[in-house]
Amino acid sequence: MGIRILGTGSYTPDFQVTNDDMAKIVETNDEWIRTRTGISTRHISDGEPTWYMGAQAAKRAIEAANIDSADIGLIIDTTITNDYITPSMSCIIQREVKAVNAACFDLNAACSGFVYGMDTAHRFLMTDRKMKYALVVANESLSKITNYSDRSSCILFGDGAAAAVIEYDENALYTSHLGADGTGAKYLYARTAVPESPFSKAENREKYKDEVGAGPEGWEHTMIQDGKEVYRFATHALAKAANLAAEKIGFDLNDLDKVVPHQANMRIIETAMKYLKQPMEKAVVNIANHGNTSSASIPIALDEAVRSGEIKRGDKICLVGFGAGLTYAAMILEY
Ligand code: UT7
């Protein structure tokens, strides 16, 4: 009772910001960034909106899948950097790819979003057999919510988009596990709207003050992160998610051909692979050229691996991520 990935696509802005460029903005250097994170450069939007990047990736995925957009019954977009509070990103993507028969909604699970989105799409396809294909899109402009005065976080993030077209297949290998720990919400967040209206009272704002969103003045809409706490969570969460997914169907992780992890930090990936008792050669890694693109990171890595031949038809793969929430998610399937 699984899914087949019929086609993938990705898009990243041409404009790039290298570690040396970052050193002109904050007190850092190429050596520190490369050894602590594995990142050398990142693609950054110099004007493309998030929806545009997502639409390009979606069009490439639809082309690769060789399907008619009108047969897409569902679009789930997993962005955390929408251009609008409303409408949803998925509606804009629908407009762009002319998927006129699709139901559209967005899903926010931060960097775990693509895996959450694929698993949700799988459940829709399984229960509504008239729904032929689903399109899952992950597009992010993290540069919009990055605080470029915070050297411990701004060097991590990049922009980009990727998408996948999937269909239901009763006989396909499939298992997944989605999880979260909301007590860690305070470790990684960015606030949305200003929490004020003509009717709100200062004493009530004080009364309902949350530990999330209590960051320094001037950082209201940018990401605030406790890197060490997120790091600690991440190394265990990746292995936990993959193990729990595998256990559900008695799958032996040694049978995996490739693991496509969230590209947050090279050291996190290495530790997670160690916990999974899998060799680093099985990990798909593109962090050097992209940095962390949140929900787009796993599908960009997947699309690049598919197009370069690193992942081939028939390979058993595990997509596994973690992110703000704190969330974690893994899925095992045959490409
Ligand atoms: O999608 C999920 C998103 N988030 C993550 O996955 C983040 C997970 N965490 C991490 O990847 C790491 O914790 C960081 C890369 C953020 C930081 O690496 P670290 O090895 O944990 O460094 P640290 O915070 O312990 O800092 C070590 C030193 C500090 O200096 P002192 O106090 O030892 O003098 C920092 O001030 O490095 C300093 N530092 C920097 N130095 C040069 C912090 N950022 C930088 C920088 N350049 N960019």
Tell me the layout of helices and strands.
Layout lengths: L1 E10 L4 E3 H7 L4 H8 L3 E3 L6 H16 L6 E6 L11 H9 L5 E4 L6 H15 L5 E9 L9 H4 L4 E11 L4 E7 L7 E2 L12 H6 L16 E2 L1 H22 L9 E4 L4 H10 L11 H4 L6 H12 L7 E8 L3 E8 L1
Parallel strand pairs: 4-5, 4-6, 11-12
Antiparallel strand pairs: 1-7, 2-3, 6-7, 8-13, 9-10, 12-13
Helix pairs in contact: 3-4, 8-9
The chain binds oxa(dethia)-CoA.
The site of oxa(dethia)-CoA has 19 residues, from helix 2, helix 6 and helix 8.
Description:
The chain has 335 residues and is an alpha/beta fold. It folds into 2 domains: 2-172, Thiolase/Chalcone synthase (Peroxisomal Thiolase, Chain A, domain 1); 175-184 and 222-334, Thiolase/Chalcone synthase (Peroxisomal Thiolase, Chain A, domain 1, 3-Layer(aba) Sandwich). The chain is 34% helix and 23% strand. It has 11 helices and 13 strands. The chain has helices spanning 19-25, 30-37, 50-65, 89-97, 113-127, 151-154, 202-207, 227-248, 266-275, 287-290, 297-308, and strands at residues 2-11, 16-18, 41-43, 72-77, 103-106, 133-141, 159-169, 174-180, 188-189, 224-225, 258-261, 316-323, 327-334. The strands form 4 sheets. A 5-stranded mixed sheet has the order 1-7-6-4-5, with helices on both faces. It has a 4-stranded mixed sheet with strand order 8-13-12-11. A two-stranded antiparallel ribbon has the order 2-3. Helix 3 (50-65) packs across helix 4 (89-97) and helix 8 (227-248) runs parallel beside helix 9. Oxa(dethia)-CoA is lined by residues 28, 32-33, 36-37, 111, 151-152, 155, 225, 227-228, 230-231, 234, 264-265, 292, 323.
